[in-house]
Each structure stands twice: as structure tokens, then as C-alpha cells.
Amino acid sequence: MNNRSTKWVRMVMAAALAAVIAAPSVAQDSTNLVYQMQELLEEMRELRGVVESQQRELENLRRRQRDQYLDLDQRLQQLGQDGVTAISPIAEPVPPAMEGSSEDQLDRDRVPEAPAVVDVPDVRAPIDAQTEITPLAGGTVISPRDLGTPTESEQTAYDRAFRALREQRYADAAEGFSGFLDQFPQSGYAPNALYWLAETYYVTRDFETALRFFNQLRDRYPGSNKDGDALLKIGFSHFELRQWPEARAALEQVRSDHPDTTLARLADSRLRDMRLAGHF
């Protein structure tokens, strides 16, 4: 409530009190008016508190979206500079986004959180997946599965879906990655395809579906180069769903499994937000 509104209410209350003094015959009615004005003033104060609280929450949301957008724009520009090159499957898990090192060619870099306010098309219905997070013991290392060398047809299908993702055609990207996984479940690209499929739902704020796919990635392709990224997004998805204990468990595990990495720093940042908000 602004100063003008407050001043107006006080003027009316003063006028009502003056009426009580000047005209005793209407004292009861004027007193009731004063009480009503007092109640109105209290309600306006409460509303002002609610508005201020919502403004703070909106500012925090805008800040997170701005940071996410800048990060996304930077990575998409890097993707455009790197281009599409021939690849071979990796032989062991490579923690992505390590400082001072480049992404594995199979990874093609990862698309982080996109801004929530976008013109989002409908995304196709997801395939069945597990829904619960099962944290691993801290520091546990799982050997990756031996996936086949991608063929030319696999590369073409993957590139088509990935191009749709870069162009923010999320429905087409979801359909492309889902079709790729149906056709090439043992491809060297399969872990990446499942990760990006989950991302198409995450960036369109369907966090429950995204969570199922991120969990499915860790179950179906343990020890893949996308394991750490998927665990981080599991924590982020629980955070967006306001499932605080699950979010904390996943983010703490990221810090334990991937110390001194960008993944750990992102997990630290979100854990700090949770602590400041009193969620643990």
C-alpha cells in the first residue's frame, strides 16, 4: 500500500472521529466507521506484506532464469563453433564439464536449464520409466556398459534430433531422441540420447517426466559419461517439485561423487538456496 492510500485512510478516520465529537447523536455509527477503517487499514498492511513477499520471490525466479539463459546461450554458441564431427564411443566414464578440459566428442556439450518463459510446443507422451531416486554410496565407481560403435545411420538420426534441440523445437527433439532409443538402444549415442530426451521435458518444465528419464538413464546406462549430469538434474527436478529431502540427497551425492567440478559447484549453489530458504 502506498503513502497516498495510507494518508487517505487516516483522513477518513480523522473525519469519523470529528463526527463523533461534533454530533453525539451519531456517535455509535461513527465509532463503527472508525472500527471498520481500522480493520481496512490492517488488511491493507497485510496485503502489502504479501505483495512484497511475492515480489522478492519473483525477483529470485528472474535471477535464476537470467543466469540459466546466459549459460544456455553461451553453450549453444559453442556448439555452433564446434560443429558436428565423427565420434567413437568412450571406454570409461568421463565427468562432463570439468574445468580446464574439453567435452568428450560423444557428449557434444550439454544444454543446461533454459528459461522457463518460452513458447513451448506440446511434447509427445513419454515412454515408461522408473520414478524413484536411489542414491548410490558416495564415491562408488561403476564400470560403463560396452556400447557399440555408432554407425552412419545412428549418427544421422542422432544429429537430426540434436539439431531440433538446438533450435528449441522441443517436441521434435523429444520425438527424435525417443525414436532413436527405440531403434538403437545399444548405440554409443544411447546414454546421450536419453539424457537429451529428459532435457526436452526439463526445459519445458515437465519436471516429473524429466525426473523419470534422468533416473532411467542412470539405471539403464550406469557409469556413462552422462551419469553425473543426470544426477545433478535429478536434484534440480526434485527442487522444482519442492521435494526437499530428495533434492538434498541427490545434490549432496553430486558433491561427493564429483568434487572440484562444475557439477559440484552447481549443486553447492542450489543447496545454498535451499538452506537460505529454510528447507533444511
Describe, in plain words, how this protein is organized in 3D.
This protein is mostly helical. The protein has two domains: 1-83; 94-276, Tetratricopeptide repeat domain (Serine Threonine Protein Phosphatase 5, Tetratricopeptide repeat, Alpha Horseshoe), CATH 1.25.40.10. Helices cover 63% and strands 0% of the residues. It has helices at residues 3-22, 27-82, 152-166, 170-183, 190-203, 207-220, 227-240, 244-257, 262-276. Helix 4 (170-183) packs antiparallel against helix 5 (190-203). The protein is elongated. The protein starts with a helix and ends with a helix. Residues 82-122 and 124-143 have low confidence and may be disordered.
Low-pLDDT stretches: 82-122, 124-143
The biggest beta sheet reads:
none
Structural class call reads: mainly alpha
Distance between the termini: 33 Å
β-strand amount = under 5%
- What is the count of DSSP helices, taking H or I runs of 4+ residues? 9
What count of domains describes the coordinates?
2
Query: Class of the largest domain in CATH?
Result: Mainly Alpha
Mean pLDDT: 74
